[in-house]
Specification:
about 500 residues, alpha/beta, Amidase signature (AS) enzymes, 15 helices, 11 strands, about 35% helix, globular, Amidase_dom, AS_sf, Aspartyl-tRNA(Asn)/glutamyl-tRNA(Gln) amidotransferase subunit A, Amidase
Length: about 500
Amino acid sequence: MDHVAAAAERADRLGPMLGTFLHRFPTVDAGADGPLRGTLIGVKDVVAVAGAPSTCQSVVHDADWWADRDATVVARLRAAGALIVGKTTMGEHALSRPDPEAPFPVPRNPWDPHRFTGGSSCGSANGIPAGFFDAGIGTDSNGSIRIPAALCGVTGLKPTQGLLPATGVRPLARSVETTGPLARTARECARLLAVMADRPAELSRPPLADLAGVRVGVPGDLVRYAAALTEDTAAAFDAALDELRAAGAQVVDVPFDEAFPLFAAQLVTMLVEAFEVHGAQLRARWSDYGRPFRWNVALGGVLPAETYLRAQRVRGWGADALRARLRDVDVVATPAWPSGAPRYDDQASLQMISFLPSAWSAVGFPALALPMGVDGDGMPLSLQLAAAPGRDFELAAVADVYQRRTGWHEREPKLEVVTDLASVCVPEAPADGVDPVRRERLARAFGELGVPLGDGDLDQVTMTWTKVEALAGVLPELPVDVPPFAAHPAG
């Protein structure tokens, strides 16, 4: 059985259980001549592909948007010989986890279908180890490529902000999101990125023999004391650093005082910009959106303008500080996520958020997640490497050296059809866990906005708002001459 037929057979047999596809395309040829000839690719449903609507895994979508046209990055992949095999499942409109009451497949982890894939580029990640396609295309606004890559045991690259064209990609939060590739290896991600970015010279970049002369910065105190790592993740990260040292890298401690302010700035930015995109439809079709999505995005409508503007200045301050730090080291290393994938019926673990991916989204720098080990349940653990803007291919080359010395990316799950799957939890606000004063204040604010929250919605939104308000409170006061963030793809 050839590669295309074997992938199709696996997708027929296992795809419904894993919830990978929203739409599948027939493959009728080997693809155009080019560097990606015959490469099978799944594309996140936020990216336009001719022949299927871009639903963004939501009933609230425009079926005529970019109808029968490819996004620019998809057109470039086709021209290089890639075969697009399907549109993949995702977090609704690229935010939040699935609502089990929505009429869409629930994406599940190929290493244990009872577990979450990470969001929001879910299907573009879980279809790779399942053998449905060779690579995936996702988008990343707050870790949405790197977190699914981490939890599904593949490699995912968030490129420099602005490196890839956004034409034909439906927006969530315009100033922080980017399209990017997922694959088994960093080398393959770099090949895909070279095609998507129209950088043909990068296809012939020679691999690094070792990491001699490469300086790897590690924010040790932040990782040890603030990242809430499991013991398995901490041990795997230490082993990964040892492997980088053995490859010739110099591992040095670096400060990362910007992490939590950037985490807050990223969240504020994403919520406000997402509400700008979806506010009118939230007013008109509130109950048609999935619950996790609407509970989060609604908050962007009540965040004060001064909080958003302060977040933009914090992003600029953080980008300047990290750009200066990355003149002294070549990459910064942390875990990509604090743990392995949580079960869908584990409410507390599903609600975990982490600053580890967020800082790099806030400043628009390239960051890459790659397998670095497994936990006690056999679930993948992931290393994150980040670099200065415009250093995407150098970043992938460092990761490639690590992967040539390790075999974590070569593991394959032993998949069987499971019918009795863990149900998906949806957060519920405890009756005694909602501040009545804050609840009433939010009720008035949403009433003024014209957003029609029900009682159950209001309890959940109030509980979520408490966390957002606390995070927004860590945005520092900065001197008046600190400018807001502006992306600089060339570095």
